[in-house]
Fold:
Amino acid sequence: MEHHADILHGGHWYPRAPDWRDPLAVLLVLGLVVLVGAGARQMVGPLVIAQHASVTLAPDALPGYTLRTVMRMLAALFASLCFTFTYATLAAKSRRAEMVLIPLLDVLQSVPILGYLSFTVVFFVSLFPGNLLGAELAAIFAIFTSQAWNMAFSFYQSLRMVPHDLDEASRSLRLSAWQRFWRLEVPFAMPGLIWNTMMSMSGGWFFVVAAEAISVGNLQIALPGVGSYVARAIEQRDLHAVGYAILAMTVAIVLYDQLLFRPMVAWADKFRFEQTASRSAPHSWVLDLLRRSSLIRQASAPLGSILQRAAHARLTLPRHALAPRLPLSRRAGDAIWLASCAAGLAWLVSVLLRVAVPRLMWSDVAVVAHDGLLTLARVVVLIAIASIIWVPLGVLIGLRPRMTERVQPIAQFLAAFPANLLFPMAVFLIVRFGLAPKIWLSPLMILGTQWYILFNVIAGTTALPNDLREAAASLRLRPHAWWRKVVLPGIFPYYVTGAITASGGAWNASIVSEAVSWGPTALDGGGLGAYIARMTVAGDYLRIALGIAMMSILVIATNRLLWRPLYAYAERRARLD
Amino acid sequence: MSELTPASIQPDAAPAIREAPPVIELHDVCMSFAKPSGAPLPVLAGVDLTLREGEILGLLGRSGSGKSTLLRIAGGLVQPTSGQVRYRGAPLAGPAEGIGVVFQTFALYPWLTVLDNVELGLDASGLPRDVIRQRALSVIELIGLDGFESAFPRELSGGMRQRVGFARALVGEPALLLMDEPFSALDVLTADTLRMDFLDLWAARQLPTKAVLLVTHNIEEAVQMCDRVLVLGAHPGHIVAELGIPLPHPRQRLDSQFQALANEIYAILTARLVESLDAQRKGSPDFTQRLPVVSSHRIDGFIETLAAGSSNGYAELSKIAGPLLKVNELLPAAAALHILAFAELHDGAIRLTAAGRVYAQGRAADRKRLLREHLEHFVPLAGHIRAVLDERDGHRAPRERFELELEDHLNRQDAADTLRTVIDWGRASGLYTYDDATRMFGAGDD
Structure:
């Protein structure tokens, strides 16, 4: 990793003089307006400028920036989809691959997303020296890491849960593996996959904003986009510009939801397995429009038939390619496979030790452990506070259908909204009133993710069967028993889902929320997130890695020791069959 | 108990009950829900009902007759739009002490054990914990759940779950027990056992309960259990008949008086059905006629069954109910045949028309043609859809259009059911097609 930074340092990576800024910015804005239709192509523009020189705070540049941010989201979505289809399928189909891939996925999922960014940005930039593409790829990769693991898990689980009768039916119809994949497995996994995509997309906005403006050591990148716009606004202490960015992001998220996800959810509804027609189906005006317009139907017909034919193709591998080459017993094969995996792991550990031991002290580990516990304490306290506030409110909202109808979309929007756009406001207030950053920076961690608790609790309350509510009313339960015996156990599985998402989000957010700045004023709240952020700025890869490893361990530990048992317990208790 | 002629309508079965103090009284109760447009949609109109001590009163009616709503009003779970509800002489506002409810779906809390579920029934009493525990245990024993105190509902069979439901309702020693189709989610044998066990406890006066209100769509169940039965008519729900059941317990199903009473109720229900089907044709526009949820396949099967019978397409509904179709499936099927003029309903009996007999004999193509003709003639909505499709260029029309027209006159559920049926019949007859992906109707094959 250091190696790449050296190359770049020796190359043409110097901050430019400020007087170059304006003409370039104008050029960039013009270029953006011209290239609005072909946002994707912009990504290969030459990376002439380091730092933030290319980003202007003029509000009329924002639509172009927003478009580029959205394009990154789309690109990452596509990459995640490709990853999901290959990785999850491999894990579901091959027992030996599963032994390695699934635990690996579990770890990958626990690594803070911005941690990936600190690591990979230099690598990607070095792939395409002198070109924006490397930096673009790094940002896209950061978003990719925020959704790919989730999606792959969901797809893998769906593949494992394909109903036995459908699987047998497709076998007796002698569908090839390729045909079975497209005609049975993908359709069956579709609703879950789309739901997971939508959920992780919510987090994606947060990371795309954070990933656009990043500096690792001497490498400073500001990709044109809303994130860089805000970073620039922070540097310039321009509260108006922050306001514009918030507005632009709001519009972008609403459009994304209406134009992409609503139609997809409505479309995927036909893949739902349960065959009851009573539940009201999701609707999307965009999808209705597309389906009803005969022009679009005719235009899309050729594409449809190509896809159809692709899915119909048999594409079987020749038999001998699948047959085992060596006459080994299953157990011996497993042993060899596991041994080679262990050897690979051992080699990695030895390399790591060789690099790390001479330069890391035990004192570093102690610092990281101390900071990790501080952040852990913050996460715990904040989740507790958010739960105390949002659980009762969510229940009260969920009991009123009218209010639910109004509040639920707002809560989902707030969860999707990148809270880091709001940090400047908070920092401004903290500086203004001279508050202690160690305490008052903490709430920023949960600013964006607390909404997951709220909307899951609302969803849980509305999902509470009506007969259970009527029974409670007819038994005239007192408030104590009503909360403790009826409502809280009823919403518990939903609450746990929300809390898991919220705490995961809080850990991720800590990297950008524990150390923030407002113009020249920098606030550092301490904690593991601040540590990683500091080391990222310093370009100290070893200590970034140490911080990330500590965070991953803490996240895995809380997942394993707290959330998973809790979820299994909740799920088992709420089941009636 | 005096000898009764089965055909008579005898509200005052037992004079002793007539003298007894009323437990719950409903006077001129009306209930309406708001339609999407905001206009009120009446589900109950002017219901008067008095339930006295010592009585089991049955509420019998088809779906849509508002019988469950009526039970919820009596339980204080739902406030009526107008009218008075008095429980033991005092106005009822919300769930009151001494009213227990047994739900069709059991409504057990899956995260609580049997004992916890039952103890919840005494939460409102404010009794000390050990007294609550003691009473819960004794009810559990009474109801036949001994040994299952620590089981979770998911570990129990349906019958055992409903026993927990009964125990929870009874532990509060309710004066009034409201039962909302308590046996309809159980299989026949289990339901019968549970019914008998309940009647045994009731007859032995082992229950603290003074009166029972039983909502059901099962005619035999009503005759088996009740002292008096109120038959509800639908749209909006109102009481159309009152029948005393003066048979001594235990009652035998094969007993001729039992059968005679059951037949009488069938006759009342079918008469109401015909009346309401005919009444619907007047008043509102033709095509807003409510259609029962009956698939074309069930129509086929039902016509074939009737035609295969010995008496030339004639059958008494009480005879074909049970082994072939449950009552709540039989009446809609009969209504569908009546609407399509493949059969006529009269006095609790159904008779195939000439067209119905031709249909029974016909091959698939003949049936399709005949169904299409009858759809166009006798189901105004189908004719309306076809006419709209014929008018339009491209012969396509969105579902929404008809949905909105229907929802002006029917509630949302009825409108959805009616559309579902008219789509099914239309598809089977080839009168028009429907694509649920685009939610569009299209002209059928000509």
